[in-house]
Specification:
The protein is mostly helical and about 170 residues long. The chain has a single domain, classed as Protein Binding, DinI Protein, Chain A (2-Layer Sandwich), CATH 3.30.910. About 70% of the residues lie in helices and about 5% in strands. It is rod-shaped.
């Protein structure tokens, strides 16, 4: 009697054992953005664009500072109207430089968002195909997890498939 009871309990656990598809798997989207071919290329492009822009802004800033020094040195020599005129011109240049800096930062931020969206659009069908192939019902982003088994991480498989499908993102 006891053996039959134990056998029936074991049989019940085997029958109601969760199917692989009921287990939620996860991907590290941030890792995919940073380490896929397309993600790396986009980041390198944006980083280079930002560095070049900042370098050019720095040169302009130095020129403005030199002009400011010259104006200050000429303050006693210039008439008050002429001094005021030069200070006004300098302020306009400073304002223009600030606008350029803001435009550069906004442009890079917009391109970064565009690249992220394009990568996500390419990634969704890949994840869906993977889910259908492996009979997985749910994939969540790693940042939403508190703790999970590393065997449930499918990030590397997804990156491999993404790299095959998308080698770069057009940003211009």
């Amino acid at each position: 009697m006891r053996t039959i009871f134990l056998s029936s309990i074991i049989l019940l656990f085997m029958v109601f054992e969760p199917v692989k598809s009921d287990i939620p798997y996860y991907i590290d989207f941030k890792y995919i953005l940073n380490n896929s071919k397309a993600g790396k290329k986009a980041q390198d492009f944006l980083k280079k664009k930002l560095e070049t822009g900042i370098k050019n802004l720095k040169k302009s800033e130095n020129k403005i500072q030199e002009q400011e020094k010259k104006i200050i040195q000429q303050k006693k020599v210039l008439s008050p109207e002429e001094y005021k005129k030069k200070v006004t011109e300098l302020r306009k240049k400073v304002s223009s430089l600030q606008q350029e800096r803001s435009k550069l930062l906004d442009g890079v931020a917009n391109q970064r968002a565009k690249a992220r969206n394009e990568l996500l659009q390419a990634l969704n069908p890949i994840i869906k195909d993977y889910m259908n192939e492996k009979k997985i019902r749910m994939v969540i982003d790693k940042k939403s997890l508190l703790l999970a088994d590393e065997n449930l991480d499918i990030t590397k498989e997804i990156i491999e498939r993404l790299n095959q499908k998308l080698s770069s993102i057009k940003l211009n």
